[in-house]
Amino acid sequence: MRDEGRRVAIIGGGMTGLAAAHKLEKAKEKGLAIAYDLYEKTNRLGGKIETKRENGFVIERGPDSYLARKESMTRLAKEVGLEDDLLFNDTGQAYVLKGDQLYPIPGGAIMGIPTEIKPFVNTRLLSPIGKLRAAGDFFYPRITAKDEDISLGHFFRRRLGNEVVDHLIEPLLSGIYAGNLDKLSLKATFPQFQQVEQKHGSLIRGMKFSKPKKTSPKVETPKKAKGMFLTFRNGLESFVEAIESKLDRNSIHKNSDIEKIYKQDGQFHIVFENGDIKHYDEVIVTTPPKVSAKLLADYPYFDYLDQMEATTVATIAMAFKEEDITIPFEGTGFVVSKKSNHAITACTWTHKKWEHSTPEGYALLRTYVGRAGDSAIVSRSDEEILSAVLYDLKQIMKIEKQPEFFIVSRWKEAMPQYNVGHTFKMSKIKEDMARNVSGLYLAGGGYEGIGLPDCIDQGEAVVDQILKR
């Protein structure tokens, strides 16, 4: 197939679609005869990225940062001129809420897996029996074969015991996927843990070996430790705006409602709600799985996408005057044990974690509600959510007045669940597409990673495939 006049449609203007469009724009600038159109159903790009900037506050309604070690987003930030706006999070102790008590996450724990003996032995978060059961990891035989897929819950419970899972691992990992640990796929979410077990036998031993070696401290003035996360001085939406500014305006189509996509006579036909039909050589679908399944309903290969579970969650950001709230803990926030009887699942002391987010004299808290199988609170009114959240927070900190203002953000079926078997089912879908609908690509948070850098990687990888055709 010749490159001359090839046309590519990108469906969905979230981070995956933006990354794909940016890469295609660069290909055009290099002289490749390729055109693209980016279609977004709403009146704005960015998907779940949405920043509220007002009166000195920078409040994220969706994701608030990304893992610094995943470098594709940092590289893209440099390409669109935002390198100088990148900020690391302020570091500090994180906690687990168990009952009505906050317990520090033991030092050296990686995603809840202990790698240092002394902090783990000394923690009051776990009982002596729970700690002893976790030590059984050193002696327990491998529980997975090389290409086997089991649930995260089954894997960690067998290796470390129920108590470590319920009060340490589950709250931390659920903060990423908002899912049920006993259904989420080990192979699709954290395959590195399976690889560690295969290589070292013991998860604790293997994670300890994987930690970077500590260098000897120098005499010079110590530098402030950098956090694990990065964001932008003016919020993540400034990143979306910077990417959009690099794209051909004539290639961006907002408020575009698409009904279906099908291939006929070697070309893809995109049917719009108003009856228009446009034709393309390749199509990149970056919409959520259920939406993608609906668009591709003419084909039998995408039933799994329609069946995928997705968790509904909400966040509530609350701004207080500094004198109206007392947080008797030094740190950046806490996650909540699933065994605790609380509506909230996590809370970030945003003014401590991200100093740029809050003007002087104020405190900013961001609390999360809704979890897999229990998201009824998300459908309540803003005031009811605020009341439930404040009730929980007042058990552990002093709040004397109502917030100066608050913002509730609801995300319906926003967190795709990679349940056991996900990677195998996605491999089958890719085989079916390559064989029967060549030129169609799926990419995005529903498939191979939900983090923003993961979405960028997927969008760019698909464009690489198209450019090689």
How would you sum up this structure, described in words?
Helix content is 33%, strand content 23%. The chain has 16 helices and 22 strands. The mean pLDDT is 94.
Please outline what is shown here:
The chain has 469 residues and is of the alpha+beta class. It is 33% helix and 23% strand. Helix 1 runs parallel beside helix 16 (452-468) and helix 5 (152-160) packs antiparallel against helix 6 (162-177).
Count of separate DSSP helical elements: 16
Separation, N- and C-terminal Cα atoms: 7 Å
The residue fraction in helices comes out at: 25-40%
Strand order of the largest sheet: 8-7-17-18-19-15-21
The SS-based structural class is alpha+beta
Major sheet size, sense and barrel closure = 7 strands, mixed
Main attributes of the structure:
5-stranded parallel β-sheet, 7-stranded mixed β-sheet, 469 residues, 16 helices, alpha+beta
Task: Furnish the topology, listing elements before pairings.
Elements: E1 6-11, H1 15-29, E2 34-39, E3 51-54, E4 57-60, E5 66-67, H2 72-79, E6 86-88, E7 94-98, E8 101-104, H3 117-122, H4 128-135, H5 152-160, H6 162-177, H7 186-189, H8 191-200, H9 203-210, E9 229-232, H10 236-245, E10 252-253, E11 258-264, E12 267-272, E13 277-280, E14 282-285, H11 289-295, H12 303-307, E15 310-321, E16 325-326, E17 333-336, E18 344-349, H13 350-353, E19 362-369, H14 382-393, E20 398-399, E21 405-416, H15 422-436, E22 440-442, H16 452-468
